[in-house]
Structure formats: C-alpha cells, structure tokens
Design goal:
Number of helices of chain B: 34
CATH topology of the largest domain in chain A: Rossmann fold
CATH class of one domain in chain B: Alpha Beta
Oligomer: heterodimer
Helix content of chain B: 55-70%
Structural class of chain A: alpha+beta
Shape of chain B: globular
Number of helices of chain A: 9
Number of strands of chain A: 29
CATH architecture of one domain in chain B: 3-Layer(aba) Sandwich
Number of strands of chain B: 11
CATH class of the largest domain in chain A: Alpha Beta
Strand content of chain B: 5-15%
Radius of gyration of chain A: 32 Å
Strand order of the largest sheet of chain B: 6-5-7-11-10
Strand order of the largest sheet of chain A: 2-1-5-6-16-15-13-10
C-alpha cells in the first residue's frame, strides 16, 4: 500500500509538469476547460455536447457564472486552457472574472466558446465586442426568416431557422460535408467586413432579418439578409481561437436530436446538422485541427550546407522550411502547394512558391537579386481556418568584393594593347632621342 | 637672377646662418608642442573621449580596420546602418583618416606600445595639427622666407578655427586634411620655385593623400589650375610652372581615381574639368614658347597666327564636348554641395538636406572674429606685402586667400580652409612689420648696425620698399629672357627665384626707415596684438571648442552640472534591446547609435539617400498611427528622440523639426510646412496648429512632460507647451534619461484582436487599431 501510494505520488510528480504545461507549443490542443453556466440544468440539457468533449479527453470544470470563487488564474498561472461561457443572461461574473480578464485570457493564446442568446446581457455583448462581434443592439430581437425556417417550428413565428450557409473550409468544419441544415434560434450579430480576423461560419439566408418577433415592425430592421451572422469564429493574431454563437439552443440536446426539414425544401433529415457542426467547430476551436507549426527557416548556398552570415549578389541559394500540422494527437507533415517565400527588402524582390516533399519539408532555390542590402526571408502563410504562420529571418546581401570582378575583360584587350604599346613606344622613342646622334 | 650666391661657408655670416637654422628648428619644435598641447584642453577638462557625431563613425571604421585588416575594410558592407539598404562603407568613405590612424595604431603596437584604438583616434588630430603648422612654415618660407614662415606656423598652431576641428577627440577628416592641404600647396610652390620633377612627384602623392582624406580636395584641383592660368595670363609662364602643373594633373588624376569613393568622378564630374582645361592651355602655351624659341621673330609671327588658330580650334572642340557632356546631366555634373558653393542660395532652394546642416550655413560676422580673430586685420597687410614684389609663390597665396574668403562666406565649415591662408598672410604681414621696425630701430641706434643687417638676412625676408615696383618688372623681364637657357640647365635653376634679387636691394632700405619712437611704439602695439591673439586662442581652445558635445556641462551657483544623458541612453540601448533591433531617430544620432549602442539605424549622418531620410522625416511629422505604420514597415522597434525642454538644451529635435518637415515634404508632398506653422511662426504653445500638436515628434518629446513641473514649461522655447495631457496609443515609453534629454519609445505590437464597432455600449472608450492590416501601407 505504501509502495503504491508512493508510486502514485511519483507518477503524479512526473505528470504535474505535463499537466501544468499541457497547453504548449508541442501540444496545442486544450485539455482543461472551464465551463461557465448561468443554470446548472444546462449541464444536462446540453449533455451530448459536453459528453463529446469529455470523450475526446477534455477535462471539463463546470461552474456557475455567479460562483464567487471563480478564477482563471492563480499565482499568475492560468488554470485552464479553454473557456466555454454558456451564461447569456449573466450580468456579472463571480470572483475576479470580468470581460477584461476574459480578453486577457484570449490574448494569452487560450480559446473561448461564447454563446449568447436572446436578451443577452451587456457583459456577454461586451466580451463579444472585444472579439470583433457586434450583437444586435435591440436585446429582444431574434433572427426571423420567413423562407428558410424549419418546418418543425411550432410557434409559427419563424424564429427556428434551418441554416445551411456554412463556410467552405475543411480546416474549420472537417472534411465530411454537413448535409442537414443547422437549427438555430437566437440573436443575430454582424461583423466588420474590414476585420480580417473574424469569419462567419454560419450565415443567415438573404431573407433573414433581425427583429422582435412578438411586436410589430415599426421601422426597417437594421440587420438583414446575409449580413447576419449566426455563428462566427475569430482567430486572434496570436492564434487564440474564439467561437461566438448567437444561440445557446444550438448546442442543446433537443436541437441535436430533432429532425429537420427546411421550409420549401423536399429534403427531410432524421437528425439536424447541429451535432456534427458543433463537434467539428469545437475540434477547430480547441486546436485539434488546422494548427500549423513551422521549424526554422533554413537557407544556404547551393552546394553548401552551412548557413552563411552574408550572401553576395547573384549567389544561388537553397531555402527550406518544415511545416507540420497538429492532428489532435501528433504532429503530421503539412501538405499544400500554396506556401510562398519572399526575399524581401521593403518589397519582395523574389516571390517563390515552395514545393513540398510530402514529408513536411517545403523547399525552393533561387538566385539572389542583383541588389545589395539587408534582406529578409519571409514566409507569411495565412490560410482560412489555419493558424497564421509569420516567419522571417534577416540576411544581408553584399556587393562584389574588389577581387570578385573579372580581372581582364575580353572586349578591353585593344585598350590593354594600346596601353602597353604606348609605353614601349615611349621607351624606344626616349632611347632613340637621347642616344641617337 | 642668380647673380648673388649665398656667402661661402666659414664666414661669420654662415655661422649666424647655422645659428638661425638651429634656432628656427627649436622654435618649430616648440610650435609643434604648442599646437599639440593647446588641443588637449578637452581631454583635461572632460575626458579622453571621441567628440560629436562624425568622429564616432570614423572611430567605428577605424576599429573595424584595426580588427579586420585593410581588405576587409575596403570591402566592408555595413548592414547596421541605413536599414534595410545597408551601406558599402569601403566604397563610400574617404579612407585617409582611418588608414592614418590605423597605421599609427599598428606601428605603435608593432613597437610594443599597446595604445587602444580610441586613444590613437583621440590624439590623431592634435598630432596632425603640429604637422600642419610645420607644413605652414614650409609653405610660407617658400613664399616670403623663414621669418614669415615661423610667424605663420605659430599663428596656425593656435588659430581657433582650426582648433575647433582638431581638438583631441575631434577625430574627423579635416584633422588630417588640413595638413594634407597645406603640404600639397607647399610642394606645389616648392616645385614652382625649383622646377624639380622630384617635388612634382611628391606633390602628386601629397595630393593623393588629400584626396584620400577629404572631399575638400576639389579646392586644390581648382585652385592650382586657377593659379596656373593666372601665371600664364600675366605672362609668368615658365618651364617651372609646367613642371609644377602637368605632372600633378596626370599623376594626381590617376591616383585620385584609385580612391574608391572618387573613382571615375576624377574624370567625370565638373569639379575636375578646370584642371583638364588648364592642362590643355598650358600645353598650347608651352608649344608657343617652344616655337618662339626655335623660329626667327619673323617666322614666329607667321607661326603664331597658325598655332593660335589651331590651338583655339582644338580648345573650342574640347570645350564643346565638355559643355555637351555637362549639359546632359541635370545638375550640370556638379554635386549638390559644390553647387551650393557656387550659388549660395542653391541648397536652400533645392536641397533642404544640405541646407539643414548647421555647418553648411553661411557664417555670421562675429564668427569671423571668433575664428580668426586679429588675423582678419593682418590679412590685408599680408596681401599688400605679397604684392611687393609679386612672385609666382606670393601670387598663389594671394589667390588662395581670395578664394577661401569667398568659400568661407558661403559655408561656415570652410572657415577651416580660410584659416591657414589667413595665418600665412598674417605671418607675412607680422614678419614684414617686425623687419621694418627692428631695422629702423637698428638704423636709428647707429649707422654701424647697417652692416650687421646682412646677417639678419638669413631669414631672407623681403623688405623691399613699396616704391620698388620696378623690381617686379625686371624680374619678369629676366625670367622671359631666361627661358631658353633654362631649358638646358634646369638644375642650375634650383635656387629660389626671389631671394637673391631681394638681397641686392638691401641698400635701398633706408627709404623705409622710421623714427625710433614710432618704431618702438608700433612694435609694442604689434606685440600687444599678438598677445591678445594668444589670449583669445587659449580661451577659445579651453572654453569654446573643447566641449565634446556628447557630454555637456553647465556651471551654476551650486556647482558644476554634468549632463551625460547621451551615453546613458546609448548604454541603455545596448544593454536592454536585442542585437538586431532597429532604432529610428533623426539622422544626427545615427553614427552615435551604431558606434555606441551597436544597434541598427535607419538613417545616419552620411546623408546619401534623401528619400530614406525623408521617410523618417515624414514619420516624425505624421500623426501617431501613420508614423507607426511607416516605422513598422521599416521593422523599427525603437524610436529615439532628443528633447532639451527640461534643461534648456537648444539643439534638440523640436528645434530641428522644421527640417524634418521640409525634407519629408520634399519627397512626400502630403507633408506641408505651412500646416506646422501658425501665421508663419513656428510655435509649440497653445497657439500651435493641430497638425503640429498631433505629430509624432511633438508627442514623443512632450509625453508626460507636464508631470515634471505641473505646467509643462519648455525652457528652450520659453513657453508652456500647447497640449499637455495626452496618451500614446501606438508607442510606449521605455526609457527617459536622467535629464530627459534622450527619450526612447518602443513601437507597440499590433493588437491581438480587432474590436467590434458598436458605439452604444458604454463599456469601452479607447478605440483599437484600425482594421486595415498594417502590412499594406503605401511606404513600401
């Protein structure tokens, strides 16, 4: 017994660093997730979603949003790698949590799933605003669609929407196509089109609009058509990922299980697309997919292996970089034909597409341009759904040395000849002039 | 001419001669010691440190040279300046100074005197000013005898204008270039006086050293041709002139083309064309004299018309070709600095970067008094002395002073070229005056003294009376007559042309005898004048010109204050930033940042790329966000500004700011100077324009300034600042030196997230980064 407990202690001692650094460069998938609920009954009403997460190895920590002991970090260390906020109506978090600490949580590279709903609180709106998502300012408004609602919408106000306008990205939504429409009942939000960090994953149809379903429209709705986003994702510059949904029901067991038939469509599905959609999205947001890492940029002259401190103009060089993709369990070679390298000095002098050997190594070779200066090898890889790779390495390029020019130029031979004949002629002339009587 | 030989050895006169030689050697040695030691005030009062801006670059280059050798230096591509363009140091630097100091360092090390490179650099300038005063002695001796030479050397040893550029630590090109300049002139005059090909070759080598050392070599290559032309026009052509000039042009041009920074400019730019033109003319003239010699006068008249017409035709063709070449270049083949010398308003009209440098401004009248002091009064007397009689050598000195007075009037920096000329002239004037007065006294004290006068003539000063204009004429006549024999017997002609003719006129001195009392009073006055000059020079050396500008001091009631902010902040940079970080500042501080902090800079004092400097100027004149984008596109991590408002340091960035606006606006027209001026006045108080109050330079200078005294009172501009409480959104303060003279800011990284744009939520007030991705900016 003593032995056992000792060995357990020993194991946990070894595991401790693994646990505390589980979210790291080498293992980008989140492990410890805090779930904030405004009602513990959500735990059972959304159990399918939580169970899929648990089955994928996540360690879920359910807390009430008002819990006064809430804390994201202790002694400056974050306790969680991910955060799920299913508390749309919470006005104030308990403990030390507020919208700023959640923004800091994201800025530290950690991930967030945030779901609002109708009558979402200012707190929730504030957090989503920090992430670049603007919810409809009318707190009682919902997304209404009179043409692509779900026929199972019993209330008749066409707020249960069967949306099928999904973003086309294997990285975000997986390789399997989501056939069934996704059921959505909730609040609309919009994105700033110039904001290149946020992305609509699930958009409303062109006939949708955002209004209070229980009252008459007095003025034209502000949010209409496909400008309405139902579910959006944000990937921050440090590759922290955020999912923001306008509907909490989207994640619920009820909508997971319900069948769906879009109004005006003959196709009837036994099961809505919600489960597949939410599962795939959670894989993306918790870095189980679409996470790239690059090794260092390697370059050398053709025929050499060591990296030089400086290149000369017109040198031939070889360049390579290793890019790996996280599969959720291990690093696998990334395969793509659109990775480019720039040889850059204020503007790219060389822009080449790298070829891959399918083992994760991307390489190319090119000639240094006939311009000297301090150049950079730059790999700027921004692909939809993937983490952004931004690598650069500085390398100076020098002009020819004084003895690297050609010593004798063939075209100048007449001049060399002229030079020497003149000298010889002068010598002969002087000799004759001085000694000829 | 060579009618009188110097007395044979053994006579009492020869003994006095020998005594005089030893005495003058001793005096010269003392002058050298004086020249060296008067420049040590900066080391004694401050410390042995490199001064100002450019010397730091030269010091860095010298370090590189001593570490890596001459070939590496020649091929040095510096990737730490002008990021990201880099600079080919080896091909763009005048290597003379660096090679000199490097050689000295190497030689000292070779004989086991392990001085540091810095020590050698600090003391190079004083050592070379001793050389320069000896060179002045030689030059003046060639012109007017050794008495004038000693006087001129003594004057030059302590002329404030030269001291300002050659105190210990002022390790700049001029330190060795002035010596090279005077020495080249000396060798030219020596060749002209002797007609020796040996000196002509030496002259070309000295010219080569000058080309290596300083861009001011164009002064030589224009002044000497002008003098040659003057000699030809005034009928003073002689084979000696030919020997002095022709080899210099050929060898000198070939040697100059060897210096990488000059290269083909030696034959391509207009600065050098005068020498080629005169080269042609002197050959035509030589041909004419030759033909005149071999033909009978009748035939000669026929030949003259023939030769002159052909010569003119050739000249016209050459001139036409040159004009065509020059016209094909937009600036007429002149470099900007040369053009601003010819047309003083050129720079201010077209090239603000040249006009912005304070040493390129025209000097004020007080600066003449400050820099050459009593010499200004003695120069006219010296010029008159040079005209009695006018020899080849003295006409050269006159031409030299005339040209240098003009150039010094255009650019305050060229006072430095004027100073040696003024010293030579004043030396001549002083020595002549002393001669006249002492001779008068002697004459008055007793007729017998007259015989002793001969002894004094080892100085061979020219005390010819003013009415002796005929002597010049006879000289000329003799020279012309001597043309033919001199062709065969060049060696006999070695004796200086003037000395004997002077001696023959000693007897006429009586005409210039003054009354005893007048002589004594005048002598005393002259001595007082000299004393005044010495006092002024010592004061200038000790107080005005010894400050290293990297360390400042101020004397106040509670003692001496030392402002060592520059080194403090460069040390901060070198200890707290990454080696490859880029630091942006106005170009003045570029050399110091690379040399002292070892960080990459965007622009520096070698203002070779106007666009790059304009980019930095534009960033400084832009509002914060635009500036951030410009700096970010240049990979800048830190921005350094110099601010004197707290302690009243006037040459800070706010005072230089209008130049940034002008230079920036010259390339990027959206920056307009008028936007920064209120009714044409440059002001930073509450009346300042919004553009001014929002530009980066204003914000970085005055950020948190109000916290110092609660009012934000700027002691340089003597006003309260206009905008007191503001925050920086794209920059953060990382370092401010003890007296706030240097402030360093770091560029904030891009925001991790982009906020939404809902306005009604009252939660937030500050606005985030604009959504436009920063990489797409118009500056690349």
């Amino acid at each position: 017994m003593m032995n056992l407990s000792r060995s357990v202690a020993l194991i946990s001692l070894f595991l401790l660093p693994l646990l505390s650094f589980s979210f790291s460069v080498d293992n980008p998938t989140d492990r410890r997730v805090l779930v904030l609920l405004d009602d513990l009954s959500l735990k059972s009403s959304h159990s399918i979603f939580f169970n899929t997460l648990k089955s994928r190895g996540f360690d879920l920590d359910f807390k009430l949003a008002e819990d006064s002991k809430l804390a994201l970090q202790r002694y400056g260390q974050y306790l969680y790698d991910g955060l799920i906020i299913f508390a749309p109506s919470t006005e104030r978090f308990g403990g030390s949590l507020d919208s700023k600490s959640i923004a800091d949580f994201v800025d530290s590279g950690r991930d967030l799933i945030l779901s609002a709903d109708t009558s979402a609180s200012d707190l929730i709106r504030g957090i989503s605003l920090e992430c670049g998502v603007d919810f409809d300012e009318d707190s009682s408004a919902m997304v209404i669609d009179h043409s692509s609602f779900s026929v199972s919408d019993v209330d008749g106000d066409h707020t249960l929407i069967a949306a099928d306008d999904l973003v086309k990205s294997h990285a975000i939504l997986g390789k399997t196509k989501i056939e069934a429409p996704v059921l959505f009942r909730g609040v609309a939000h919009s994105l700033n089109p110039t904001n290149n960090l946020v992305l609509k994953v699930l958009s409303a149809s062109p006939s949708a609009y955002s209004a209070n379903p229980s009252s008459k429209l007095s003025s034209p709705p502000q949010l209409t058509g496909s400008a309405i986003s139902l579910v959006s994702v944000m990937q921050a510059r440090n590759n922290a990922r955020v999912v923001i949904s306008g509907s909490l029901q989207l994640f619920s067991d009820k909508l997971f299980r319900s069948g769906v038939q879009k109004a005006g469509s003959p196709n009837k599905y036994e099961k809505s697309g919600n489960e597949q959609f939410v599962t795939e999205l959670s894989k993306w947001v918790f870095h189980e997919r679409g996470h790239l890492k690059a090794g260092s940029l390697v370059h050398h002259r053709v025929g050499e292996t060591d990296e030089p401190a400086i290149y000369r103009i017109k040198d031939d060089l070889e360049f390579s970089v290793e890019i790996l993709e996280w599969s959720g369990k291990r690093w696998e070679p990334y395969v793509a034909d659109d990775v480019q390298v720039q040889f850059y000095m204020m503007s790219p002098y060389v822009l080449k597409t790298l070829s891959t050997d399918k083992k994760g190594l991307f390489h190319t070779s090119f000639k240094v341009p006939d311009v000297y200066g301090v150049f950079q090898f730059k790999v700027e890889y921004e692909k939809l759904g993937y983490t952004t790779l931004s690598l650069s390495k500085q390398i100076p390029v020098r002009p020819y040395r004084h003895n690297e020019y050609e010593r004798f130029i063939p075209t100048a031979y007449p001049y060399y000849g002229a030079c020497f004949t003149t000298m010889a002629g002068f010598f002969v002339f002087s000799f004759v002039y001085l000694y000829h009587k | 001419m060579a009618t009188l030989e110097s007395p044979p050895p053994g006579t009492p006169s020869a003994m006095t001669n020998a005594f005089g030689t030893v005495l003058s050697a001793l005096i010269l040695l003392l002058i050298g010691v004086l020249a060296f030691s008067i420049r040590l005030f900066s080391v004694i009062k401050y410390e042995s440190v490199i001064h100002e801006f450019d010397p730091y670059f030269n010091y860095r280059v010298t370090q590189f040279l001593s570490k890596n050798g001459i070939y590496e230096f020649w091929n040095w591509f510096d990737d730490r300046t002008w990021y990201p363009l880099g600079r080919v140091i080896g091909g763009t630097v005048y290597p003379g100074l660096t090679l000199t100091a490097g050689t000295i360092w190497w030689a000292l090390n070779a004989i086991n005197i392990p001085l540091s490179v810095e020590t050698v650099c600090v003391f190079t300038a004083p050592v070379f000013s001793a050389f320069a005063s000896w060179a002045t002695y030689l030059l003046t001796k060639e012109v007017k005898g050794s008495g004038a030479g000693l006087a001129a050397a003594a004057l030059l040893a302590m002329v404030p204008s030269y001291i300002s550029r050659s105190v210990a630590g002022s390790y700049d090109n001029e330190a060795v270039a002035i010596f090279a300049l005077i020495f080249t002139f000396y060798l030219y005059i020596k060749t002209l006086n002797t007609g020796s090909l040996f000196y002509a070759t030496l002259n070309a080598i000295a010219y080569f050293y000058m080309v290596c050392s300083w861009g001011g070599y164009t002064f030589i290559i224009n002044l000497i041709p002008m003098h040659v032309l003057l000699c030809i026009v005034t009928g003073r052509y002689s084979p000696r002139l030919y020997i002095a000039y022709a080899p210099l042009v050929v060898l000198g041009t070939l040697l100059a083309a060897l210096v990488p920074v000059v290269g083909f400019n030696a034959v391509l730019t207009s600065e050098h064309f005068a020498s080629f033109l005169v080269f042609i003319i002197i050959h035509v003239v030589a041909l004419v004299y030759y033909i005149k010699g071999i033909l009978s006068p009748k035939m000669f008249k026929v030949a003259v018309t023939l030769v002159v017409s052909i010569g003119l035709a050739v000249c016209l063709i050459v001139v036409a070709v040159l004009v065509a070449l020059v016209a094909s270049s937009p600036t007429g083949g002149w470099s900007g600095r040369s053009l601003s010398l010819l047309d003083p308003t050129y720079a201010s009209k077209y090239i603000p970067i040249i006009a912005s440098v304070s040493e390129h401004q025209p000097p004020t009248w007080p600066s003449y008094f400050m820099d050459i002091n009593v010499l200004a009064f003695l120069v006219p007397a010296g010029i008159i002395a040079c005209f009695s009689p006018l020899s080849d050598a003295s006409s050269f000195v006159v031409l030299y002073i005339v040209m240098s007075v003009y150039f010094s009037g255009v650019m305050v920096r060229l006072m430095l070229v004027l100073a040696p000329a003024a010293c030579i002239m004043s030396g001549i004037a002083l020595s002549q005056a002393f001669d006249v007065f002492t001779a008068s006294i002697k004459y008055q004290l007793g007729r017998s003294a007259n015989s002793k006068d001969d002894a004094e003539d080892n100085t061979s000063t020219n005390n010819a009376p003013k009415d002796d204009s005929s002597s010049g004429k006879t000289d000329k006549g003799e020279e012309v007559a001597k043309e033919r024999p001199s062709k065969k017997g060049k060696k006999k002609e070695r004796e200086p042309a003037d000395k004997p003719s002077v001696k023959s006129k000693i007897l006429k001195k009586r005409a210039l005898v003054l009354p005893l009392e007048a002589s004594i009073v005048a002598l005393l006055l002259l001595i007082m004048l000299g004393a005044f000059y010495v006092i002024h020079c010592v004061w200038a050396a000790a107080e005005a010109y010894s400050a290293p500008s990297i360390v400042l001091t101020s004397q106040s009631r509670d003692g001496l204050h030392v402002f060592d902010d520059f080194r403090e902040s460069y040390a901060w940079l070198s200890h707290n930033t990454d080696v490859d970080d880029k630091v942006a500042s106005w170009w003045d501080y570029g050399y110091q940042t690379t040399a002292m902090a070892n960080r990459t800079v965007i622009v520096d004092n070698n203002t070779w790329n106007n666009t790059h400097i304009a980019t930095v100027g534009t960033a400084m004149s832009s509002p914060e966000k635009a500036a951030w984008e410009i700096f970010n596109s240049l990979d800048v991590k830190y921005v350094l500004v110099v601010f004197g408002g707290l302690i009243g340091y006037p040459s800070d960035d706010i005072n230089k700011f209008l130049w940034m606006v002008r230079i920036g606006g010259g390339v990027f027209p959206h920056i307009k100077e008028a936007d920064y001026l209120r009714d044409g006045n440059y002001r930073i108080d509450s009346e300042a324009t919004p553009t001014m109050l929002n530009c980066l330079m204003y914000k970085l200078s005055y950020y948190r300034f109000v916290e110092t005294d609660g009012k934000g009172y700027d002691r340089v501009r003597r006003t309260e600042i206009g905008k007191k409480n503001f925050k920086l959104t794209h920059f953060e303060e990382v370092f401010t030196s003890h007296h706030w003279m240097v402030r360093i800011y770091k560029l904030k990284p891009q925001k991790n997230r982009i906020r939404g744009r809902a306005k009604k939520l009252k939660l937030k007030t500050s606005s985030g980064l604009d959504s436009k991705p920063a990489k797409k900016n118009p500056w690349i």
